[in-house]
Amino acid sequence: MKRKGLNREFYVYIPDGIEDLPSVPLLFGLHGYTSRAIWFLGYSGFQPIADTEKFIVSIRKAQF
After folding, report:
1. 57: which strand partners?
2. Residue 55 — very low, low, confident or very high, per pLDDT cuts 50/70/90?
3. Do the Cβ atoms of 13 and 43 come closer than 8 Å?
4. Which of 8, 17, 43, 55 has a 20 to 30 A CA-CA distance from 30?
5. In this structure, what DSSP letter does residue 22 have?
């Protein structure tokens, strides 16, 4: 995605089994200034919750 001339990258986690659902929630995770998106994806615990509750997780790779 491009915004204000900068390329923005996201980690997106899509759990199995959502293809046939009529709609799926999307959670945007925002990591802190000294953290990294990939770390946040791990320590937030959202992946196993997304698997159970069937939602997509998107975390922007922010520059610090």
Report:
1. 13, 27
2. very high
3. no
4. 17
5. S
**Residue 6 token pair:** 């900068």
Q: Which of 16, 21, 22, 12 is nearest to 58 (CA)?
A: 12
Q: Is the pLDDT of residue 25 over 80?
A: yes
Does residue 64 surpass a pLDDT of 60? no
Q: Show the tokens assigned to 56.
A: 């997509």
Please state, in angstroms and rounded to a whole number, the distance separating the CA atoms of residues 14 and 34.
Answer: 26
State mean pLDDT over 21-48: 84
The percent of the chain in helix, strand and coil, each rounded to the nearest 5, is 25, 30, 45
User: Are the beta carbons of 39 and 45 closer than 8 angstroms?
Assistant: no
